[in-house]
Amino acid sequence: MRATTTILCALAFILLAAGHARAQEAGTSRPGGEPIAVGVHVSPPFVMKDGARFNGMAVELWEELAARLERPYTYREYATFGDLVRATEAGEVDLAVSNLTVTERRAQQIDFTQPWFDGGLRIMVSAGAGAGFWDVVGGLSDSGYLRSYAWIALVILAAAVLLTAFDRYFDKDFPRRWRDGFAESFYTVMQVATTGRPASRKNLFGWIGRIWQGLWLVAGVAVLAFVTSSVTSVMTTLALTNQIHGIQDLAGRTVGVLRDTVAHEYVRGAGLRHSSFLSIEEAVAALGDGSIAAIVEDAPVLEYYAHSRPGAGVRVVGRLFEPDKYAFGTPHGSDLRRPVTVQILAAHERGEIARLRAKYFGDGS
């Protein structure tokens, strides 16, 4: 009986030792347990995609944190921030990694870690934005100048007809056919009206003719000055009104935003006319073809795009508005939130986040 008990105890000890060894072996091959499902949304320079590999400031930060947590992970990509937040809320992913802005509405859906980046909104416009031909025509019409131009045109035509009749009667060398004579007179009148210089023509009446030609020259200079000043005035006004310096200049214009972003929520709340896009490249294309007047988006995203693509013909204008913060997101009650928050604070203290910011935005950012 005693021998049987001893044998059973020995077998139990062996089984326990084997189970412990297997557990250690499993822990070594998969540190920290199951891989963390990390949801990402491509938003340069925070999340970028190179083939099947993700990189960017937020991705680099997370991978440094994961190494310190000794946790494996896998990535899942989502088309919009809204999709990413909803996937995190539903528990499809354990952690949302991107330039995810902390908002009250999102905080009702998911939990946020310690913020790791200060952001906000800015405006991007076309570098060559200005008044086009039809804008000038519309401005001249609204100002009443087109009506004045019509009267000037009638006066020019009447003057050409009268001059033709006058020269046909007094100048024997003037073309006899009305068509040819009118063309010659019209050219003479337009030469004075458009250049302000006297036309080359006979002086048929001595000093009286010269005085008449001088008066006609003054009238031509006046017409030229009026047309020039009116067009310049309208173009200057259009240039001033077309300029966008801040959010106050967006009223009545169509602006572009990225779908399901904080900027999208902002323009809807402000009542601005807008179009939404899935990517910054689509929004810039719409800006280039004139479909939208400006893009409202996270300042770092716009600044990075303009800096990394100097030939894109865009510029970022105005001051930062609607300041906000970026954080990572977890499902409500996740055990991952606290260790990730602790590691973010440690990364701040070690200067790792400042180093990443300098890498992607320069030392002066």
UniProtKB/TrEMBL annotation:
Primary location recorded for the protein, binned into one broad class: membrane
GO cellular component entries: membrane
Domain Ionotropic glutamate receptor C-terminal: 35-363
GO molecular function, one term: ligand-gated monoatomic ion channel activity
Membrane topology of the entry: Multi-pass membrane protein
InterPro entries, per the entry: Ionotropic_Glu_rcpt, Iontro_rcpt_C, Solute-binding_3/MltF_N
Pfam families membership: SBP_bac_3
UniProt domain Solute-binding protein family 3/N-terminal: residue ranges: 37-364
Name of the molecule in the record: ABC-type amino acid transport substrate-binding protein
